[in-house]
Design a protein that fits this description.
alpha+beta, Nucleotidyltransferase, domain 5, 4 domains, 5-stranded mixed β-sheet, 13 helices
């Protein structure tokens, strides 16, 4: 069964087990309650076969027969009488003179499959140039470019950056070994601390920035959509996340990579830089010089950055988050280690509650119940030392006299009842 049929089975099974109401099942299936009740009745009778259409696997009634296809190939071929006719004209003549009734699109597909007609070249999509945003901070384009930035002096690296759409100003650049989640978390936090929160981020459809997961039945009922860690961070900050459908849509930062792969590589070569640490150390001066040369003034001189409050908890927002269940002894498992929550007379009992463990870009752990930070300590689980394997003691050699006495007793026992 395909994914849609499996989903229907799961919904009907939940409805059968009375863990889902008929109204919720109708909402998920896009059917009326009466249709859902009929589907449930059939599902109860025949099982999973109820979600499979009756015509599944059967040839369609209007399928073109092989004999008709062979005849079309013959008359539409190089030596056929319709060899240079287009599909529309040929269809009319086939109906009128050859008594062959066939649809125009089907005829066109048959001719192209037989390589008797050429597909028309698809015209390239023309896109209208998008105007820049009017004020700084309205839209930031972010991306990563993996390239041989150090040429043959060092390894291939990824340059993660952000550019303001209104001014073309480079706001952030940093080298990372790969395009990873930590790099984007650092980007979001650095921009927020230095400039503030923008209105929106424009990015590609990388799985770090856009979750590829599909919503489950529980997610649909709760109105949730799957989010990556970066999507969740932006959603909690109130910043819009826009995923581009093509590289041309975020052409501002794509053209930036072309410029940097020409200029920045040469600057790194002149400075004889061969490590990622040295390359990151020279980026602030390069960004300042680049912005003086290429940045443009915005139409609206008033920026729209939203500054962070003074009591803003950076470790809560700019971090990855995972949920854990607190055990009765106020501990939680964390990748081979134990998180021990602090307990005391003034602290509430956290056993059985769900808390969140946050990990910031520096790898530091923080524990929260809601937005309330919790005190904890990390305990390493040490494997118990294995007890030494004792060598088995050698068995003594059997005593021949004892063996004879044992056999004599067995023989006497067997013949006692005779």
């Amino acid at each position: 069964m395909n994914d849609a049929q499996q989903r229907k089975c799961e919904i009907l099974q939940r409805l059968k087990d009375k863990t889902l109401s008929t109204a919720d099942a109708a909402h998920l299936l896009g059917r009326s309650t009466r249709q859902v009740q009929r589907m449930l009745c059939r599902f109860t009778q025949v099982g999973m076969q109820a979600v499979v259409h009756g015509n599944c696997g059967r040839p369609p009634a209007n399928k073109t027969t092989p004999e008709v296809i062979d005849q079309i190939r013959l008359v539409g071929g190089k030596d056929g009488k319709y060899h240079d006719f287009n599909a529309c004209h040929m269809q009319e003549l086939l109906i009128e003179h050859d008594d062959i009734k066939i649809g125009r699109s089907t005829l066109d597909r048959v001719l192209k499959d037989a390589q008797l007609r050429q597909s028309k070249r698809k015209q390239p999509l023309k896109r209208r140039r998008r105007e820049r945003k009017s004020a700084e901070g309205m839209l930031l384009q972010i991306d990563g470019s993996t390239h041989q930035w150090l040429e043959d002096r060092g390894p291939k690296m990824c340059l993660i950056g952000a550019v303001d759409d209104a001014t073309g100003k480079v706001l952030y650049l940093r080298f990372r070994p790969t395009e990873d989640q930590i790099g984007y978390l650092t980007l979001l936090q650095d921009i927020a601390c230095r400039w503030g929160l923008p209105m929106a981020y424009y990015h590609d459809r990388h799985t770090i920035l856009l979750s590829p997961k599909k919503a489950t039945i529980d997610d649909e009922l709760a109105g949730r959509k799957p989010m990556s860690q970066l999507q969740r961070v932006l959603d909690e900050l109130g910043v819009e996340s826009i995923a581009a459908h093509s590289p041309q849509a975020k052409g501002r930062i794509e053209r930036l990579w072309g410029t940097l792969q020409d200029r920045l590589i040469k600057h790194l070569r002149l400075a004889n830089i061969a490590t990622i640490e040295e390359a990151n150390a020279m980026l602030p001066a390069f960004i300042e010089a680049y912005n003086r040369r290429f940045a443009k003034p915005p139409k609206d001189t008033e920026p729209v950055w939203v500054p962070l409050p003074k009591d803003f908890d950076l470790n809560y927002y700019f971090s990855t988050r995972e949920e854990r269940l607190v055990q009765d002894d106020h501990t939680m498992a964390w990748y081979g280690k134990t998180v021990q929550l602090a307990t005391g007379p003034l602290r509430s009992n956290m056993a059985g509650r769900r808390v969140y463990i946050h990990t910031n870009a520096q790898g530091e752990l923080f524990c929260y119940h809601g937005k309330k930070p919790l005190t904890f300590k990390l305990i390493d689980i040490k494997a118990k030392p294995k007890s030494p394997v004792k060598e088995p003691k050698p068995k003594p050699a059997p005593d021949p006299e004892q063996i004879k006495r044992s056999r004599r007793r067995q023989t006497n026992f067997l013949h006692a009842g005779l």
